[in-house]
Structures are given as C-alpha cells and as structure tokens.
Amino acid sequence: MRLIYIILLSSIISPIFGQSQAPDFPFITLNDSTQTLDELKGEVVYISFWASWCKPCLRNFEKYESMRLELQNKGVKLLNVNIDDNREIWKSTLLSKNILGTNVWASDFEQIQDDYEIYNIPQYEIVNKKGMLVYLSQNENRSIIEEFIGWLKESE
After folding, report:
1. Among 6, 57, 84, 95, which is disulfide-ready with 50 (CB 3.0 to 4.6 Å)?
2. Helix, strand, coil % in the chain, rounded to nearest 5
3. pTM assigned to the model
4. Is 155 exposed, middle or buried (0-12, 13-18, 19+ CB in 10 A)?
C-alpha cells in the first residue's frame, strides 16, 4: 500500500524543483471569511487544488482518506482549495462529499494558476513551517509519512 502512495504522490506533486517561497494567495472559508496562505506559516500545509467536476480529484480524496487522516492526526494542515467558478457549487459539493481537512474556495484562481503553474488538477503542493515549497524525495524506499514528520519537527 505504501508503494501506491509513493507512486500517486510522486506523480502528482508539482514538478517545480528546489525550495522557493510558496506564493501567498487569498481564499474564502466555509463561514465566508477571507484568509491567506501566509496566515498558516508555522504549520506544515498539504494543499490539494481540486474542483467539484473533477472526478479524479474526488476519487483521490476518498481513496487516500486513511493516509490524509494519518497526516492530519500528526499535525499536517490539509488545505483543500476548490477552484470552481461558483462558490455555491463548491458548497453544495461539500454537502454531499466528506472531504477531510480545511475546505476553502479560491477567490482568485487565475493568479493562483499562474503562481503555482497549475495546468491540470488534481495538483498537490507541500508548504513547510517557514512558508517554503518542499517536495517529496525521489527515493523509492522513502516513507511519505516520515517525510512529513520530518517537516513537522523542523523549527520555524
């Protein structure tokens, strides 16, 4: 099962290499407040860019729920950024789907798309406590959970 996680995540983590500052972006929460990614500095954040119409996105939330739950229980912030054109579609999808994590709506997807080079979804990004984009190692014997634990142990 671990090999499946490795294959899935290594194939979908953004192919931008090297550490760089995660571009800040605003998002709308379920209670209609506006927040930004920068407000989450100090946390390890696993970002999932998704849409209600994207079947692979919805399937991956369900398929990898146990791994996502383990990451969340260890302290990783699961930030699910919806890119639907309409906020009401996003909210209605959440009523019918149990998507683990913090569910938010992208208020300026065009800017996010440019900043994160999003060409298709689902797309996943990892941001460390310092607000830097980090990437899973390419070592086939790695443990994804252990890599996240390493980022959680890093100081700010």
Report:
1. 57
2. 40, 20, 40
3. 0.86
4. exposed
**Domains of the chain (ranges plus CATH)?**
2-153 (3.40.30.10)
Burial string for 72-91 (b: 16+ CB within 10 Å, else e) reads: eeeebbbbbbbbbeeeeebb
What is the reported pLDDT for 138? 84
Structure tokens at 28: 């709308």
Which has the closest alpha carbon to 62: 15, 24, 100, 12? Answer: 100
Q: Is there a contact between 122 and 49 (Cβ–Cβ < 8 Å)?
A: yes
Closest listed residue to residue 67, CA positions, set 6, 130, 154: 6
Residues 108 and 27: their CA atoms lie apart, in Å, by 8
Flag whether pLDDT at 146 surpasses 90: yes
Give the residue from 145, 90, 97, 116 showing the smallest Cα distance to 37: 116
C-alpha distances (whole Å) from 74 to each of 140, 147, 150 are 23, 12, 11
Residue-wise pLDDT for 4-41, tens only, equals: 443 344 444 444 455 799 999 999 999 999 999 999 99
